[in-house]
Amino acid sequence: MYANAMMHEVKNVALMGLEKTMKGVVLSDEKMDLKVMIEELESSIEVPSVFICPISLEPMQEPVTLCTGQTYDRSNILKWLSLGHKTCPTTMQELWDDSVTPNKTLSHLILTWFFHKYLDMKKKLEDVEGRVLELLDLLKKVKGQARVKALKDLRQIVNAHVCARKVVEKNGGVGLVSSLLGPFTSHAVGSEAIGIIVNLDLSWELKRNLMHPAKVSLVVDIMNEGTIETKMNCAKLIEILLMEGNGSEAEIVSSLSLLVGLMRLVRDKKNPSGVLIGLILLKAICSHESVRSSVVSIGAIPQLINLLPNLNNECLEIALYILEVLSTIPEGRLALKECPNIIPNVVKLLMRVSERCTQFALSILWAIYKLAPEECASQAVEAGLAAKLLLVIQSGCNPVLKQMSSEFLKMCSVNYSTSILISKCMLTTTIQ
């Protein structure tokens, strides 16, 4: 009982504090829909704990109090009681009275608090909209450092507020910002403009405009020289343009400068987000057969192999996919074979991350095996390939992967002593 009394006291103090905070705030419409305000307010808003229903852990819209003194949202507590429960959900005390009493004081405080936050949000949105329109108008007039400053301010607002993006899109801002990209655009202006564009919805016409050789060349140059954030934004923009698939992307993917800059981004171990973005773009580029030999020629294969041990699962799957795609061309297979310790490093990845990773790894090993069967079989078995293949065959993997594993195991046995192969599998006497 003493504990309950203390709990009520704490709640009363909290309510009194909130009431003082709300003093002077007048509701213009007492019937304003609380549900609408809760839904429209940003999810990151921190709601006072006394406003939260202990059952749903959501803000109460119609608080009611039980005989135990505990307050719940009406719909939640009535559902609790309808299930035959005779206790208070929070205290587990037996209810001597199952009636519920509307908590009008708390209800008013909740409505007032949310209304106050709702007005703040609306004012903030109006301020954001006004600032965006002001900056768009300013960009039509200024040049030099003033233009860079206006773009930087606009980029920061667009990154921070979804509503700002909508204002830019509705008021011709996308076209205005993209028009600033050209052969004579400074990297300072270009970096800020690209940082804005990648956060907006681009029409087909605007994407086609951005695929102009002069604009693409600028984006590639900026990606090679900009900050890590700028490099990531450039990679995102190029990926967006490649997804358009209107036939103009061939000129983009054939740029050696782009490939070199992209590999710099992929190798940056200090920025995992940049590595992922770089790998995603490289994957899109490698889908074009005509550019695969160029990717191999800049040393992408040994660089990717060196990265494998340090990649997270998401990046690892993409990297292995890229290596598998590059293994489909003769230059790619030769580059793979010449990588030091590639076979043991790839064998380690079998049955370690995902079924897709295992499939990609097997395809890479298969490509190397075709070039040097005896050498590959020897190194692979020594690295534990046979045991891994048996695990794949006995697992619940897809039939294609099992078939590939079976054939690979047969090929290894042709180029390797059967007795040694079995011993390397570490099979039990029964299985042998």
TrEMBL record:
Pathway: Protein modification; protein ubiquitination. Gene3D superfamilies: Leucine-rich Repeat Variant, Zinc/RING finger domain, C3HC4 (zinc finger). GO terms for molecular function: ubiquitin protein ligase activity. It is an enzyme of class 2 (transferase). Signal peptide: none annotated. GO terms for biological process: protein ubiquitination. It catalyses: S-ubiquitinyl-[E2 ubiquitin-conjugating enzyme]-L-cysteine + [acceptor protein]-L-lysine = [E2 ubiquitin-conjugating enzyme]-L-cysteine + N(6)-ubiquitinyl-[acceptor protein]-L-lysine. SUPFAM superfamilies: ARM repeat, RING/U-box. Residues 46-120 form the U-box domain. InterPro entries: ARM-like, ARM-type_fold, ARM_PUB, PUB22/23/24-like, RING-Ubox_PUB, Ubox_domain, Znf_RING/FYVE/PHD. Its EC number is 2.3.2.27. Keywords: Transferase, Ubl conjugation pathway. Functions as an E3 ubiquitin ligase. This is U-box domain-containing protein.
